[in-house]
Amino acid sequence: MGGTFLELNDTLRGFIERQHVFFVATAPLAAQGHINLSPKGLDLLRVLDSTTVAYLDLAGSGIETVAHVRENGRVVLMFCAFDGAPKIVRLHGRGRVIEIEDAQWADLSAKFPPFTGARAVVVVTVERAADSCGFGVPMYAYQGQRKQLVEWADKKGAAAVKQYAAKNNRQSIGGLPGLRNV
Hints:
- It contains 5 helices and 8 strands, in the order βαββββαββαβαα.
- By secondary structure, the protein is α+β, with helices and mostly antiparallel strands.
- It has a single domain, classed as Pnp Oxidase, Chain A.
- Strands 1, 2, 3, 4, 5, 6, 7 and 8 form an 8-stranded antiparallel sheet that branches.
């Protein structure tokens, strides 16, 4: 069935890089806080090395992942095969957030296509990778990426996206600090 790994081998890396969607889960420390689970598509994820992955975080209605990672670092990424052989891979680790004004931004953001709505890079140091069968995951045919988020940001323009983030992404729904530099 499944196995656990301390780092990403070529098989895991190949599987991760072939997926069209992944999921990011985080939670605040407070027991009454909201657990967050976000789907991610587009071309947003990079495997940087055998223990590090990063994804480009785009402007959106919430800032839960950034807020939770800032508070406690805990994050899990999940990848599911919706076509081909059944498989699920989870990457448990510690994250850190790099915003546009941070020194590492230029180097990290250059690893991704340019997106008007880019607001941060979330870097995850993988502490545990695990794969499992995925026998219960349904099969779906990939038809392509949705364009609405990218088109929304492009239509607004970088300045208006930054204003949007200043209004909507300063704190999480639980009141934790979100983006610093908006």
